[in-house]
Amino acid sequence: MNKTVSLNLSTEAIMSEIYALSALRCLSNGDESRPPILTRDRAPALKILIRDAFAFIVLKIIRYVERCNINEVSQSTTDADDEILSVDLKVCSDVTDTAAKSMQQSLNHCISAYALHICYMGHDNATSEQYEHIANAEVAVLQQLLSLTSYREVNISPRY
To answer: In whole angstroms, what is the distance from residue 126 CA to residue 117 CA?
Structure first.
């Protein structure tokens, strides 16, 4: 049997991860030639990057996607600045809530890393490439997780 798992991703949560990664990068480098730390005054631009990253990641896992909401962002949270991006994934019926939360967390990491890749592109190409590598690794993990939990129709071929 199969079922659909709905994942709702908070742009505020993804931006918090981006801010934290940016701050840690600035603190650990100490190199003044690197781009400055990302702050909340960049939120409108980051939301655009997050939606772009979400669309890119959804295309990478499209075979498991039943429905997604990118352009018509839901405002179903109490925080007026928070936007919810949603995706419904086709999985087998024995997928637990823990596995669904793992998928959501992996998707958050993919989006954060890919948004940072786009953000640093052209300003700090080495950092951009590092985040692209992280995003691709996270996508691979998500694809593997989905392939293990996805409903697959069985083709039976008789032998004569």
So the answer is: 10
